[in-house]
Amino acid sequence: MTGSRATPATIRAAAVQIAPDLDTAAATLERVLAAAAEAAARGAQLVVFPETFIPWYPYFSFVHPPVATGAEHLRLYDQAVTVPGPVTAALAEAARRHAMVMVVGVNERDHGSLYNTQLVFDADGTLLLRRRKITPTFHERMIWGQGDGAGLKVVETAAGRLGALACWEHYNPLARYALMAAHEEIHAAQFPGALVGPIFAEQIEVTIRHHALESGCFVVNATGWLTPEQKARITPDPALHGALSGGCMTAIVSPEGRHLVPPLTTGEGILVADLDMGLILKRKRMMDSVGHYARPELLSLRLDDRPAVPMHRAAAPSDTLIPGRRRDVRDPAGADADPSADRGDADQRAAILRRQAG
């Protein structure tokens, strides 16, 4: 594979399915650090955690009407992650200590807005990617702002070329294609888990296996988990507990679309599998969807990867506009120009006007 650094022939990857702490970000962070240490002890060089796991996914917004979510939404603001900040510092230190690439989903607070953000830390602790989900889904739109195209990119990590998407971004084929066109070798997928019911787990499996096949890459997917006590805390209505169940499909999939280990669909646990990077070329030899199997003269993607910002400052011109000339011109000499030249031009124009008037 091409890239600025050599990818090892085999990468040991881990996908984590655990429950958050619903009280504080600090407590959930401790769960993340403990799971990262366990994955590292099992030889993992890459570990992926669920969507917006720190402090927790906003499950409340799925089972309560917007008018009743104000207090929980504000509590999420209070516990959300700033980038950079104490949480990112702790995650970077863990990645460095274990020499392991870490992909962690967080609720990011940026002043008055929250975002569904994916953080990718390299094995030396460097934060390589902070990307925001481009379109929150249904109930999530009351919680998070929208991301931009700046995050639709692949980064070089110690584990290989890595791209990431969250949840139903995988239903946006052009978002996936942007990462495919950047030649991702490993795709980190994150879903909330414990949501919608068993059909969600089935849909996740179809989605990640298809992306592995289409992209010719490995997919490491992590989903979250809720205990019965946590469901009861989120909503006391037993009729809504089914909406907070199922939807778990933590899995590691090869470029051939196969599970490398049995997926985890219930309870907590860590999946670990060895990724034979040679399988990427074996798949792409037959079908490279952004190479010999593409038809860019017929079909292509236009990506605006500029960061979206609310204000643009107009830069002051570096040269000086000189008024009153026969035609306005920019004087490259600026303030250092000889003013006598302008006076001479002005005198000539005044003489012409006087003759015309006479």
TrEMBL record:
Domain of life: Bacteria
Gene3D superfamilies, sorted: Carbon-nitrogen hydrolase (3.60.110.10)
Region (Disordered) location: 312-358
Gene Ontology molecular function: nitrilase activity
Domain CN hydrolase: 11-277
Family matches, as Pfam families: CN_hydrolase
SUPFAM superfamilies tied to this protein: Carbon-nitrogen hydrolase
UniProt entry keywords in alphabetical sequence: Plasmid
Similarity comment: family membership: Belongs to the carbon-nitrogen hydrolase superfamily. Nitrilase family.
PANTHER family the record matches: CN HYDROLASE DOMAIN-CONTAINING PROTEIN (PTHR46044:SF1), NITRILASE (PTHR46044)
Protein name listed in UniProt: Amidohydrolase
Annotated organism of origin: Tistrella mobilis (strain KA081020-065)
Lineage of the species this protein comes from: Bacteria, Pseudomonadati, Pseudomonadota, Alphaproteobacteria, Geminicoccales
Gene that encodes the chain: nitA
